[in-house]
Specification:
Layout (H helix, E strand, L loop, with lengths): L21 H14 L16 H14 L3 H12 L2 H5 L7 H13 L12 H6 L19 H14 L6 H9 L13 E2 L19 E2 H14 L7 H8 L16 H13 L16 H6 L28 H10 L55
Antiparallel strand pairs: 1-2
Helix pairs in contact: 1-2, 1-13, 2-3, 2-5, 2-13, 5-7, 7-9, 9-11, 11-13
Length: 382
C-alpha cells in the first residue's frame, strides 16, 4: 500500500456522499446520464452534434446500472443506425469501440452478428494482427494496446464468440514480471517485445498503470485464464492509504481508476470492501463514491461523478466508468434487469428534492489532483 505522493485523500466533492451503497450510487449516476440523452437517442457534443463515443459510454453505463430502460432503448436504436461512426471514428476499425458496442448489443438482446446490419464479431476479427500478431487493431498501440485488447476480448465473450489463443497469449505476454512489487504483475499500456517494464512515472504518464492492468486482468479472468504473475499483488502494493488508486502509483485517487480496479477485483471473485483492500482511510468503494456530486451541487448535476482538478463539475467520462465500479459488476454483462432510476436528494416524506438535505452523515476528506491523467483507454470518441 502506498500513501499518495500528491495527498491521496478520498474523493473530491467536499461533502458527505449521496449514499454508501454502490448500486444506489450507480442508479443516481444513471439518472444524470439519461438526462444528457437527446430525444433522438444520442448524447450531444459541445456543439450540439451527436457524439458517438459519449452515446456508447452512456448506453453501456445504463445497461450496467440497469436503469431507465426507455432511454437505454433509444441509445441502442441510435447506435444501431450509426455503427460505422461508432466503430470507425477515425477511418480504421477501433477494436475497443467494437468491443464496447458488442457488450451494449448483448445487454439489449441484439444479435452481435447483425447489429445495425453489421456483423460486429467479423468486424473485430478483421483487425486481429493488423499492427502485430495477436493484437487487435491497426492503430499504434502505444497508449492503449493492453486496454483495447482487454475490451475486445470482453466483447467477444459477450458475443459468446471464440477468443483466439493468439489474442489471449498476446495479452499475457505483455505482463511485467520483476522483483519490484510496484511493477510485478502489472501491464504497461503497451511494450515492444524487448522493452523493459518500468514503474509508472507521474511526470510523463508512462510505465505500468492501474487502468491497463485492470482491463487486462479482467479480460483474462473472464476467459478463466491466469496470467504469469499475480496482478493483485501489484494492486495491493500501489493502493493508496485512502483505499483507492490513481492512474499511476503515487498519484491521487481518481474515479476512473477506482472503478476499473474494482471491476478487475470482482471479475476474479474478490470483494473490494474486504481484506486486503480495506485501508486506514477507506475502501475502493468509499474512494469512488467520494467523487459523486451530492446534495450541495446544482440539482442538475447531482448524481454525476467529477474528476480531480475539474472544479467539481460533472465529468462525461468519469460518470459512466464510475457506474461500472459502483455496481461492482464485471464485463460482459449478463442477465440485465432494468428498473427506474432513483432520484437523489429527496426530502423524506415529500417526494421533492432539496440541495439542503444531507442524505447520509458519513463525511469524506478530499483533495483534488492537479491534473487529469492521459487516458490509456480506447476513447469513447465523439
Amino acid at each position: 500500500m502506498l500513501a499518495s505522493a500528491l495527498g491521496g485523500a478520498v474523493g473530491s466533492v467536499g461533502a458527505a456522499p449521496l449514499t454508501t451503497d454502490g448500486p444506489t450510487a450507480a442508479g443516481y449516476a444513471g439518472r444524470w446520464l439519461a438526462a444528457q440523452v437527446a430525444p433522438a437517442g444520442f448524447v450531444p457534443d459541445a456543439n450540439g452534434d451527436p457524439s458517438p463515443g459519449a452515446t456508447l459510454a452512456t448506453s453501456l453505463a445504463l445497461a450496467t446500472a440497469g436503469v431507465d430502460p426507455a432511454t437505454f432503448d433509444r441509445t441502442v436504436a441510435w447506435l444501431a443506425g450509426h455503427v460505422d461512426d461508432v466503430t470507425m471514428p477515425y477511418g480504421d476499425v477501433d477494436p475497443g469501440q467494437v468491443g464496447y458496442l458488442i457488450m451494449v448489443g448483448a445487454a439489449a438482446g441484439a444479435d452481435p452478428h447483425s447489429f445495425g446490419g453489421v456483423d460486429l464479431v467479423t468486424r473485430l476479427d478483421s483487425t486481429l494482427g493488423a499492427f502485430e500478431p495477436g493484437l487487435y487493431g491497426v492503430a499504434d498501440p502505444t497508449y492503449d494496446g493492453a486496454f483495447r485488447q482487454g475490451v475486445a476480448i470482453l466483447g467477444l465473450e459477450a458475443a459468446t464468440a471464440v477468443v483466439p489463443a493468439a489474442a489471449s497469449d498476446w495479452l499475457i505476454s505483455q505482463q511485467c514480471g520483476t522483483g519490484d512489487p510496484t511493477i510485478r504483475g502489472a501491464w504497461m499500456a503497451y511494450r515492444a517485445p524487448a522493452q523493459v517494464c518500468v514503474a509508472g512515472d507521474p511526470a510523463t504518464y508512462t510505465g505500468v498503470d492501474t487502468n491497463s492492468t485492470a482491463m487486462a486482468s479482467e479480460a483474462l479472468s473472464t476467459l478463466g485464464l491466469s496470467p504469469t504473475y499475480d496482478p493483485f499483488g501489484y494492486f495491493d502494493a500501489v493502493q493508496n492509504s485512502t483505499g483507492g488508486w490513481g492512474y499511476l502509483a503515487g498519484t491521487d485517487d481518481d474515479p476512473n481508476s477506482d472503478a476499473l480496479v474494482i471491476q478487475a477485483l470482482v471479475a476474479a471473485g474478490l470483494s473490494p470492501v474486504a481484506t486486503p483492500w480495506v485501508e486506514a482511510s477507506g475502501t475502493p468503494l468509499s474512494s469512488l463514491l467520494g467523487f459523486q456530486l451530492g446534495c450541495d451541487a446544482d440539482p442538475a448535476d447531482q448524481g454525476a461523478f467529477t474528476f480531480p482538478g475539474t472544479g467539481g463539475t460533472p465529468n462525461a467520462l468519469a460518470t459512466p466508468q464510475s457506474v461500472w465500479g459502483a455496481m461492482a459488476r464485471s464485463f460482459p454483462l449478463t442477465d440485465v434487469t432494468f428498473v427506474a432510476a432513483p432520484t437523489p436528494c429527496l426530502v423524506p416524506g415529500t417526494g421533492s428534492t432539496s440541495t439542503d438535505v444531507t442524505v447520509f452523515a458519513q463525511s469524506v476528506a478530499v483533495t483534488a489532483s492537479p491534473t487529469e491523467p492521459i487516458s490509456a483507454a480506447p476513447a469513447f470518441t465523439g
